[in-house]
Design brief:
Elements lengths: L1 H8 L21 H9 L7
């Protein structure tokens, strides 16, 4: 069921993983914020 939804979503990078995030300065990504978002803490799913 999940794989069917994943195919229907037509994601640009279906194999993307958090470990591959590029944090170089030009992107101005907040490492701490992304780490918090990845825990699910902000969604109440913890």
């Amino acid at each position: 069921m999940f794989s069917a939804r994943l195919r229907r979503a037509q994601l640009r990078f279906p194999d993307a993983v958090p470990e591959d995030i590029n944090y170089r300065a030009a992107r101005r990504l907040d490492r701490a914020l992304l780490a918090r978002l990845l825990t699910g803490e902000c969604t109440g799913d913890t």
